[in-house]
Amino acid sequence: MKKRILLLAGGQSGEHEVSLMSARSVLAALPVDQFDVTPVVISKEGRWLPPTQTQHALESGVADSGGDLVLHRAASAEGYDAVFPILHGPMGEDGTVQGLLTLAGIPFVGSGVLGSAVSMDKVMTKQVLASAGIAQVAWRLAVRRDWHDRPDSVRQSAQELGFPLFVKPANLGSSVGISKVHGSDELDDALTLAFSLDRRVILEAMTAHKPREVEVGILGNDAPIASPVGELRFEADFYDYETKYTEGRATMHIPAPLPAEVAAQVRELALRAFRALDCAGLARVDFFYVEETGEVLLNEVNTMPGFTTTSMYPKLFEAAGLSYSDLVARLVELALERR
Ligand code: ATP
Ligand code: MG
Ligand code: MG
Ligand code: MG
């Protein structure tokens, strides 16, 4: 019997369009002899689109509006064997949709409520990983209320970390709302931008030198495996949105040319982080490797990483001998195994 899969894509976050790109790749790759896939696009307003509007959104690459209230449409998820929520960012990758599907009793690809929520929030991630003994950059949390009522206390946190530093919305992705702040004169604008997107903002010390950026894919539930290590190279000051999504701005190197012991350390740390955060199914764990000092610092864990055929995560497993369509099929298996 073919497995009936509901593919959720789009969503309310700044990564709506990225999600639709991933969804198109997954749709094209799921073996038709094994899977019967129904896509449902979620508009930027958070409403679930019926079939014709979904089709239109997949073709145009965006759904600004339309559709039904989630609680109405979610009932249509009943009858599917599994859901593949290929959603990035808040209201998708952060445990909200995972909670809905858990309540509905439908298996789904990827981490559950806990792993999704904790991994989405950069501050919670850092706290959990610190308690697991994993090295990271120094950081401070700031909440919107403090920025309004006591801005000097937030500026003080920045002074303590020193410049340059990074200011990031705690719950976002694709570098949306992230600024590299070179000096105190750039700080307020960066904070204003980040607080326009999130109640919680993280300030992060920059690595001692421009880091090499290496990433590992993790696949599995309670006995996860790590892919080879990949590296991203680019000319930009940091890996910002434009560099991520403009063709030709960044290159992927798999396997990353690293000393064997560094690659082994990165893979081991990625597995440890995956377990510490209670992730499931898949995650892409991103690191900074500071060549000058030999430091390996964990940057973040993405529980629903970019998933087009040319994205890092599928490419990492392809290098390990798992094709894109086999990878997708394996993820569905892992979702069913977790029931
Ligand atoms: P993703 O799209 O992978 O989910 P994101 O939006 O969660 O990304 P980060 O990975 O936290 O954002 O940061 C984006 C980029 O900013 C990094 O890839 C890196 O280039 C740069 N960067 C972020 N934090 C630091 C830091 N502390 N030191 C040096 N560079 C940093
Ligand atoms: Mg991220
Ligand atoms: Mg992300
Ligand atoms: Mg990142």
From TrEMBL:
Reaction it catalyzes: 2 D-alanine + ATP = D-alanyl-D-alanine + ADP + phosphate + H(+)
Gene Ontology MF annotations: ligase activity
Pfam families: Dala_Dala_lig_C (PF07478), Dala_Dala_lig_N (PF01820)
Cofactors (names): Mn(2+); Mg(2+)
Keyword set, alphabetical order: ATP-binding, Cell shape, Cell wall biogenesis/degradation, Cytoplasm, Ligase, Magnesium, Manganese, Metal-binding, Nucleotide-binding, Peptidoglycan synthesis
EC number: 6.3.2.4
Subcellular location(s) per record: Cytoplasm
Pathway info: Cell wall biogenesis; peptidoglycan biosynthesis
Major site of localization recorded for this protein: cytoplasm
Residues annotated as domain ATP-grasp: 126-333
Keyword Nucleotide-binding: yes
Top-level division of the source organism's lineage: Bacteria
Alphabetized NCBIfam families for the sequence: D_ala_D_alaTIGR, PRK01372.1, PRK01966.1-4
Family the entry assigns: Belongs to the D-alanine--D-alanine ligase family.
Role: Cell wall formation.
Protein name: D-alanine--D-alanine ligase
Organism: Deinococcus rufus
